[in-house]
């Protein structure tokens, strides 16, 4: 679309002069509800730190702090060929990765398959069959007529799973809108391996990993200052390396206290009790109407899956509870469809470069069949900014909490996920929040910087499989289920 109005800077105050008083009052109310000031951020982080600790304790807490059995960082000299499977929300990706002789280098071949929406609420059998179809297709097209020896697979399963071993993972509960019966409470590796065996595919699961752990390891492969791996996407979460001696729930295993092990925090579950998070009425509705009420409180305020829905609920509130205030005389039935708007819509609104917000106008017409007035467009823009800003500022709390908990004053944080890579201003807003929380002096350089990560569920998964085989060879058998089985991959 060609814009006629003059362009304005991406983040601007908007022209309030022409907005009617009653709408201005609503904007002000939204500002009050969605703004998270420094004091609140700090309060959130303090509680976050104690919740991280609690998750590592024997009693446990809301945040699972799952032990991943990824024991230490790569040194850049890992080698071999691995398969990686990433079961994401939108796509299923299969990769073959060869970690080459050159330090921190790799070759990658990959195929993406669409993850059908119905699968997310289908049966467990359909899920495993679909995954096996994709793996089979990949092997057939990349290794046609070849005799392939058994390939180690790094399976990125980005949901909370407790692991007694690295090739094991009991799904605690589905997150991110998945709701497949018969998987929660069970180890997800055996059904996958069973179906691979049935189809005669030369693949064995060497490691089950979380996307955050993959991100941490892949990022550290090329930048040794990377100490935290984060995802700001459909869901939110982070992983970091902890000393075994600081994990009370592992004490019974008598492992060396100075051994490193990656912890998948699963901190989307932070503050499920609603003690410090500044929830609005829209956050309560999202929770109430979600497949898992009472869970993933932090994620529901910050992750890509929910941002568009928060926005839709806020508009609906104006429509229903302030009759005549917005979208007068228009058919607003589209706006009543739950989850109609995803976070890319908010991103597009925030990115509209035109003074008259003509791209936003066009977007609302196309998606909601609503013709907004200039004043309504200003309100919509401000609402998107408020929701996006709140998400970025709260997201920074998880990173700050890990830094505080571990006493890490400076580090790089590898981040991935659609919100981090595509949502405008997310990085700057998060960085600003970190400055406020960690009290850096105004001229001081940022000591903790959140930067783009390496490919966690591809290269990261391969590296974790490689690290696992390497330590099996070296005799470090912590978290190894079946030594004979693992040895078939050496
Ligand atoms: C959800 C999942 C978690 C994942 C995150 C980002 O929080 O439970 O495992 O890391 O989303 O994808």
Automatic annotation (TrEMBL):
Keywords: Allosteric enzyme, ATP-binding, Glycolysis, Kinase, Nucleotide-binding, Transferase
Listed SUPFAM superfamilies: Actin-like ATPase domain
Pathway listed: Carbohydrate degradation; glycolysis; D-glyceraldehyde 3-phosphate and glycerone phosphate from D-glucose: step 1/4; Carbohydrate metabolism; hexose metabolism
Reaction catalysed by this enzyme: D-fructose + ATP = D-fructose 6-phosphate + ADP + H(+); a D-hexose + ATP = a D-hexose 6-phosphate + ADP + H(+)
Superkingdom field: Eukaryota
Residue ranges of every copy of the Hexokinase C-terminal domain listed in the record: 227-467
Pfam families from the UniProt entry: Hexokinase_1 (PF00349), Hexokinase_2 (PF03727)
GO cellular component: cytosol; mitochondrion
Positions of the Hexokinase N-terminal domain: 27-221
GO biological process, one term: intracellular glucose homeostasis
Enzyme nomenclature, EC number: 2.7.1.-
Record Gene3D superfamilies: 1.10.287.1250, 3.30.420.40, 3.40.367.20
Gene Ontology MF terms in the entry: ATP binding; D-glucose binding; fructokinase activity; glucokinase activity; mannokinase activity
Family membership: Belongs to the hexokinase family.
PANTHER family in the record: HEXOKINASE, HEXOKINASE TYPE 1-RELATED
Protein's name in the database: Phosphotransferase
Naturally occurring in which organism (per UniProt): Aspergillus heteromorphus CBS 117.55
